[in-house]
């Protein structure tokens, strides 16, 4: 009979599963591992035996019953299998071997609706279920991801020590990620990039919004690059140097850092830069789409986030765009700009658009918590994203500070720090937008963010006419600016008298 020696178990030994298992083992926990295809388990254990300092902490199990028996009770079993049906199938296979109080932790890219459904079902059977967003790709999984767990608080308390140990860490004073972890040598100290997010699907929801923000963050950077290339005729290497400089200031982030690196990469196959040879047709896996779709469902204007998804869709129409490029006319770029001034204006446009995009992401989460019954701590969420994940940036510390100043902040743009930044930068942002429009350069996310900014700061909008139109053809009624809110009127547009009635 197998004795229970493992502190935790993990199912699913694809790249993310292997790396997370090694991260857990590196922190001194004994981990049992299992994969549907047992060859993968054997290969992984062999790899550990040959290469990994923490090899003694990894126990490979070929059978699921043996795997479950190997884990100390209450069992903690992490799933890193394909999202969707594979997760359900794995849970069903595990259940007959588990005992009341055991905890399943889904670290996959689940849709949060699925997590809510699974949590409800499993808690009804006496088990606990945690859905944990895991961000940071394979390197993050191995040396410190950003972890967004949700479920019952008791189950979280049981998992918390391990999750805090394996999460990315940021310096308590600077907020900068602590780096330098190596196999068998995790970093010590620092603030862990994980915290309890809330009940049921809250963690996977927050992970989804993280990914939506990641989409827009990337798109905005691409548009800044595109403007420098097309308005200023700069080559990729020169633009890379600018991003390198920007990475020293308020735009400092993982994405800006890798952009500087990517742009300066020479093409291994020919002269010139690699990026100029990469096909401009973007793919997507769905989490940006989920965020945009949820924003539409909740009626929250996360238009820049949605625009980033559409921008990928437009890019993917490569053949159509090539055909249209010789038919649909646009202006010829004609500029003699002051290069340094325009580059600084583009930096401002990027920063202002980024503030809008994050404001949208946080506004979406603020609505979601009301709709789905969560109490999200936005300062903590921004703190969890400071290390480990793709959107990690100094900027997120400013967001944590903003919610520290005012936990009930209505919109990120209204925090004094961001207000000042956007009020100062908006003029240059507009100059950049005008140049882009006049010269026919497509910068949809910059434009979308600006539409949000100008709409949000307008005490009046054109929706007065819209409401009148709706009343005209559908008797949808309207409120009046000179009457208390909540009083509705209808005008009899079809009659010659055109009488107005209160309804
Ligand atoms: P496999 O190696 O046996 O295919 C990512 O695809 C991970 O999810 C892999 O570990 C894979 O196991 C696992 N996986 C995919 N579909 C699965 C299923 N239906 N049941 C269990 N595990 C599955």
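^ Assign residues to that structure.
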């Amino acid at each position: 009979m197998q004795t229970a020696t493992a502190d935790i178990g993990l199912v699913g030994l694809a790249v993310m599963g292997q790396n997370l298992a090694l991260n857990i083992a590196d922190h001194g926990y004994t981990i049992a591992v299992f994969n549907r295809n047992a060859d993968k388990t054997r290969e992984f254990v062999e790899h550990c035996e040959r290469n990994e300092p923490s090899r003694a902490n990894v126990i490979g199990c070929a059978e699921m019953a043996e795997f479950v028996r190997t884990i100390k009770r209450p069992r903690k079993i992490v799933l890193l299998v394909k999202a969707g049906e594979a997760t359900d199938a794995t849970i069903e296979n595990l259940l007959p071997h588990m005992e009341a109080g055991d905890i399943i932790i889904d670290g996959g890219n689940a849709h949060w609706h699925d997590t809510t459904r699974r949590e409800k079902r499993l808690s009804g059977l006496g088990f606990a279920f945690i859905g944990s967003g895991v961000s940071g790709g394979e390197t993050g999984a191995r040396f410190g991801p950003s972890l967004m767990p949700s479920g019952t608080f008791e189950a979280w308390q049981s998992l918390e020590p391990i999750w805090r140990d394996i999460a990315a860490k940021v310096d308590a004073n600077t907020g900068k990620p602590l780096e330098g972890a190596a196999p068998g040598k995790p970093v010590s100290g620092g603030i862990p990039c994980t915290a309890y997010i809330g009940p049921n699907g809250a963690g996977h929801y927050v992970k989804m919004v993280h990914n939506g923000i990641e989409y827009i963050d990337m798109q905005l950077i691409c548009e800044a690059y595109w403007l420098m290339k097309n308005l200023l005729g700069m080559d990729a290497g020169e633009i890379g140097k600018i991003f390198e400089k920007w990475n020293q200031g308020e735009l400092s982030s993982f994405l800006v850092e890798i952009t500087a690196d990517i742009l300066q990469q020479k093409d291994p196959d020919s002269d010139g830069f690699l990026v100029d040879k990469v096909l401009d047709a973007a793919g997507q896996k769905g989490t940006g789409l989920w965020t945009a779709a949820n924003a539409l469902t909740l009626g929250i204007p996360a238009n820049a986030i949605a625009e980033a998804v559409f921008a990928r869709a437009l890019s993917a129409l490569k053949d159509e765009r090539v055909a249209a490029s010789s038919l649909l006319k646009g202006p010829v770029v004609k500029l003699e700009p002051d290069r340094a001034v325009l580059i600084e204006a583009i930096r401002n446009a990027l920063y202002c658009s980024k503030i809008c995009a994050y404001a949208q992401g946080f506004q979406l989460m603020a609505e979601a918590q009301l709709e789905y019954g969560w109490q999200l701590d936005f300062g903590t969420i921004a703190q969890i994203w400071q290390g480990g994940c793709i959107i990690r940036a100094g900027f997120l510390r400013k967001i944590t500070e903003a919610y520290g100043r005012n936990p009930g902040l209505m919109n990120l743009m209204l925090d004094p720090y961001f207000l000042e930044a956007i009020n100062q930068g908006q003029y240059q942002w507009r100059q950049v937008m005008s140049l882009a429009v006049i010269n026919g350069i497509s910068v949809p996310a910059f434009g979308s963010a600006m539409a949000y900014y100008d709409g949000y700061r307008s005490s009046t909008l054109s929706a007065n006419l819209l409401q009148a139109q709706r009343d005209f053809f559908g008797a949808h009624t309207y409120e009046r600016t000179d009457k208390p809110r909540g009083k509705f009127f209808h005008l009899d547009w079809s009659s010659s008298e055109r009488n107005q009635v209160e309804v």
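The mean pLDDT is 96.
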